[in-house]
Amino acid sequence: MYSFVIAIRSLLMRYRQYVSLFFVCMFGVCISVTSLYVSKGMIYSLTDKARIYFGGDAAFMGSPGCSSGLMSYNINDFFDLLKKDLPEDSIVSGRLTREIIEFSFYFEGTELHLKTMSGVDFYNETNLLSRLDFVSGDLKNISESNGILISKAVADKMHIACGDSLSYVFKDDSGSVNTADFVVKGIFNDSSVFGIYTCYVDINYMRTIYNSPSGTVNRICFQNINNEQIKSIHEYLKNQINMFEYVEDKQIFYDALEASPVPVYNLIPLIANLTEIKIMQKAMTAVITFVVSMLVLIIVAGVGSTYRVFVLRRLNEIGIYMSIGMKKPYIVLTLLFESFVLLVSGCVAGIMFSGVLCSAIHFFDFSFIPAFDIFLTSGLLCPIFDISGTLIVTLCVIIITLSVVLYSVYKSVRVMPCQALASID
Amino acid sequence: MKKLVLIFISLMLVCGVITAQVSKEQAQSLLQKAQDSTAFYKTDFCGSYNIVHDKPGEGRDLNDAVMYRRDSSNKWAILITGPSRERGKGYLQTDGNIWFYDPADGRFTFTSSKDKFRNTNANNSDFAPQVYASSYAIESYTQEKLGKFDCIVYVLTATVKNIDYPRLKLWVSISDGLTRKKEDYSLSGQKLRTTAIPSYQSITGNGGKDTFYVPVNMIIQDNLKGKKVNGKMEFEKTVINISNVKLEKVEDIVYTKEYLEMMSAR
């Protein structure tokens, strides 16, 4: 108890000496945790976009066998099977996704090529698709219509506004050249690789224009299920149909399709579609870890070395403590308390200042940076508080610095009281 | 008396209408004639093509080419002769495949009959014999006047898959069985292209034994691609002028890749 009181008193009396250490700790922790929050926000934004693009947390798809491609099938053949034992709030919906780069849209005579057309069940995917950042229009009245959602980048390039009509020229399932009219019902802000050249249309209208039978899908998407539930469903389905092994890299499944002589199915989790993103995520994690490590080292080196000098200059004080009967462990404890309070206050201030910094970052539009939009939400960085990362950084700073301080203090208290008293502050 | 004259004239008109009605067999025969007029099975074809591609608001692209056709073997070759930056490029159809040759990289690239010719509104298939009768069925036909020509207007539906256009509307002049106008439609009935052939040139070929009719020019309008100019929608247009037509045997080497490579090197 006395050690703590003496430590606080000493801190307050010598606050001028400790101010610089406090700020070193504060800014070091601030930058470290801000980096963590920003990177977490970037990954979340990317994953959110991917979730909209891929239809949810997992997708059930199949291949006819002896083929490198996926097949279309009737959703009703699998729907009841897939819905079994699912959590109550989970949503299952079919999608019909086609690569349409070779086909054309025409608006007022100008030709436009998009990469992907996703026929979605707007009724079941309202919650998911409402996460699109609409700059104009919305999802109202798009279900069972010829409405289309396109990205803002494409709309701006073609001077398309909500309500405009697009003519789509394509080849249907029978190989015949066909045309269809779409009305732009919504324009969303997404210039990432997922959204910029993707359009969303009603699945029934898409089946009609492609002359596909009713119920045709090429993937059944799941929302609001976690990895454990995905694995559980996968295990259940293995007993019902010919399922490929559970993979977290969809390319493994795609590469194996040609070798299968019979139809094969799989339940692909969202992370399996993000293999390239995982590499990027690992790289970001490595960079952030390096930055945080360097900052922690700076704090440790700064505080530790400076504190060592402080302790040496306070040998006389230590001698007085010894002469009045304070045991060495309590002297060490007193000095450690000082640095502990300094570090904790620095960390807390750093975390609080990080909150201010993150709020400020949130106001800047970073969409001008090419290819960076994939990490943004509506053009803005959205840092996310990471409690575990914060605790790790804080504990690292405190424990490592205290260890260095302990080493310095321990060496100092080993001197004889008379030697300590003989030293001058 | 006046009444009698009126009745007589009406009767004559009705008779005229009855006698002028074309039977289904006649319509099919005329359609076959229109198809046959686009092909030269008895001889080779050689002609100079001047292709003008008009893009509203963007100006014109001009291409000159020489075309060789041997329809009996389903072969043709096109050698681009102008402008200078395009000279030496060429197309070759042989063994059912169409190749595009670019002397810049010395490579032949596989292309398709459905692809556009030199990014114009003409398809590669426009330079080959047409398949109105063999790949289409007559959905309906009517008689109509197109300018000074009495035409049968056919509405044709494709009977084969993987064809350029699933529906056609074709104007064929009754007197000579030549195609005067064609409209290409998608499956849903949207007009995609309009081709007009205002006039033909008659050429004697095959050693003077036969007379063939070759378009003087063809005007192809894209009904989707275009631009708004002064608030009015104007569509892209390609005009193909055909001249210096010869209908006589051409050396076999012309229909080979080596010929294109050799001509591009000059």
Give the fraction of residues assigned to helices of chain A.
Answer: 40-55%
Q: What structural class do the secondary elements of chain A suggest?
A: alpha+beta
Count the strands of chain B? Answer: 15
Low-confidence runs of chain A: none
* Total DSSP E strands of chain A: 14
Q: Outline of chain A, from the CA principal axes?
A: elongated
Average pLDDT reading of chain A: 87
Rg estimate of chain B, integer Å? 21 Å
Outline of chain B, from the CA principal axes? globular
Largest sheet of chain B: 13 strands, antiparallel
* Percentage beta strand of chain A: 15-25%
Strand order in space, largest sheet of chain B: 6-5-4-3-2-1-15-14-11-10-9-8-7
> Approximately how much beta-strand content do the residues of chain B carry?
over 45%
Structural class of chain B: alpha+beta
Number of helices of chain B: 3
